């Protein structure tokens, strides 16, 4: 994190850049995390109104994934904000990372929804698409194997995130529980999308069907809010007691 904040009287002066920020060009307020020079580079959070002098946002173009989302790069050059815009209680990386658990939990559910959409599309297609002797491809063993794998993994993923939700409601959820749900369910959804694309054949890449849209979006979901590998290390640290990162 290279964005810096410097205390000047009753104001903070922010300088730095941020990339891949959702809604950056349409938001009225940005939440900016920066290292405060006067506090030993402690990470603090700030509310920055986007119409302040020195604040600039530009959209990122050319994305093949999450194309419906406005994604931006932010630039802050001597942006002055009042000290009241400092997020109270924020201090250290723990503060921004606390936000991630809620986002990752929601992603674990959303990935299941994408997998269900792909599975349902593939199932309906397999029942309607006929080949050889006017038989639906759903009657073929290899197609049934793909559909069975999908519904089996979707059901397991539903139960996993449901249990995490129960732990969350009871105040017992731990970061590694959420990492397991996010890691497993996004991987599962990607595999479902790829198997569904196999079943649809050439039609799997056509925009008449939702498969490729889900597949491309899930490729981003695999890496945002913590990559598949990072969640692997979070779980690994939990089960071994040894941090490998």
Descriptive keywords:
2 domains; Butyryl-CoA Dehydrogenase, subunit A, domain 2; two-stranded antiparallel sheet; 6-stranded mixed beta sheet; Butyryl-CoA Dehydrogenase, subunit A, domain 3
Describe this structure as you would to a colleague.
By secondary structure, the chain is an alpha+beta fold. It folds into 2 domains: 4-85, Butyryl-CoA Dehydrogenase, subunit A, domain 2 (Beta Barrel); 94-240, Butyryl-CoA Dehydrogenase, subunit A, domain 3, CATH 1.20.140. Helix content is 47%, strand content 22%. The protein has 5 helices and 8 strands; from the N terminus they run ββββββαββαααα. It has helices spanning 94-128, 141-169, 175-200, 211-221, 228-240, and strands spanning 4-8, 11-22, 29-36, 42-49, 55-59, 71-82, 130-131, 135-136. The strands form 2 sheets. The chain has a 6-stranded mixed β-sheet with strand order 4-3-1-2-6-5, with no helix packed on it. The longest helix has 35 residues, at 94-128. The radius of gyration is 22 Å and the shape is elongated. 29% of the residues are buried. The mean pLDDT is 94.
Order of strands across the widest beta sheet? Answer: 4-3-1-2-6-5
Could you name the CATH class of the largest domain? Mainly Alpha
Proportion of residues in helical segments? 40-55%
How many beta-strand elements?
8
